[in-house]
Amino acid sequence: MTCAVLSDIHGNFEALEAVLAKIDSLGVDAVYCLGDLVGYNADPGPCAELVLGRAAAVVRGNHDKGVAGLLSLDWFNPIAKEAALWTRGNLGPQLLERLRRLPEGPRLAGEGVVLCHGTPMDEDAYMVDAASIAESFRCLDERFPRTRICFHGHTHSPLIVVRREGDRKASVLRGRDEIVLEAGSTLLINPGSIGQPRDGNPRASFGIFNTDTGVFQVVRVAYAVETTSRKIRAAGLPPELAWRLAEGR
Ligand code: ZN
Questions:
Q1: Could you tell me the distance, in angstroms and rounded to a whole number, from the CA of residue 202 to the centre of ligand 1?
Q2: d(CA 170, ligand 1 centre) in Å
Q3: How many domains does the chain have?
Q4: How many angstroms separate the alpha carbon of residue 80 from the centre of ligand 1?
Q5: What is the CA(38)–ligand 1 centre distance, in A?
Q6: How far is the CA of 182 from the centre of ligand 1 (A)?
Q7: What is the pTM of this model?
Q8: What's the CA gap between 199 and 156, in Å, rounded?
C-alpha cells in the first residue's frame, strides 16, 4: 500500500492542486493529513474541502484550532493572527464547524503509523532539537509501542530521523529525502509543507510511503507561486505572506 502524507497546506490552492495531480499520477492508496489546512494563504475553503474529501485520516493543526476558535490567537505572531482572523471571516459556518471537529493528534492511521501535527507529546510544539526528538521517541514507546513511523509537520521543513534497533540515540539524516524503513527501526518524519515551505525550496513538499517496501520519499512539486501571491495581495492579506512563498522562507 502506498500512502501520501500531506501537511501545512495553509489555504494554498495552487500548491495543493499540483500535489494532488502528482499523487494521482503516482497511484496512491491513501492520503493522510497532518493538519494546518488553513491560515496564511487566500483559499482556505477550497483547500479544506479538497483535503477533507480526500484524506483517510487527518489531525488538526494550531492554525485550524486558532481559526476555529479553539486556541487563543494571542499565541500567533501579528501576521499569522491577521491571516487567521481573515480566514475565520472567509470560511462558512459549516467548514468552521468541520475544522472545530478535527481530531487531535497523535492518532494511529494504520499498522504502526502515527500521525501528529507538532510532536506526539504536544500538537502545538515544534520538533526541532535533540531534546524534542528524544522526548518524542520516549512518548511513542509509552503510548504507541508498536510505532514504526511517526509523521509530524508544523515546522514546514522536511526532516528524517531514524532510531535503529539497539541505538541509544536517534540519528537526524540531514539533507536526505529518502529512507528505507528497516526491521527494528523507528522513523520520525516531517514531509515538509505544501502551502508555505520554509527550507529555502519554494516547491510544495509532501511525502510518499510504501508500507510493503518500507520506502519513504519526500516529493517536491513546482506550482504557480505567482498566482497564489497575487491572490494573497488581492485578498488584502499581509503582503509578507506573498513574498515569502517565492523564496520558500
Ligand atoms: Zn503550519
A1: 15
A2: 25
A3: 1
A4: 10
A5: 8
A6: 30
A7: 0.96
A8: 7
Q: pLDDT tens for residues 77-129? A: 999 999 999 999 999 999 999 999 999 999 999 889 999 999 999 999 999 99
* Residue 235 CA, ligand 1 centroid: distance in Å: 20
**Is the pLDDT reported for residue 133 higher than 90?**
yes
Range of the domain at 154: 2-247
Cα 85 to Cα 88: distance, rounded to the nearest angstrom? 5
Q: Residue 48 belongs to a domain with what CATH number? A: 3.60.21.10
Report the distance separating Cα 220 and Cα 229, nearest Å: 19
How remote is the CA of residue 127 from the centroid of ligand 1, in Å? 13
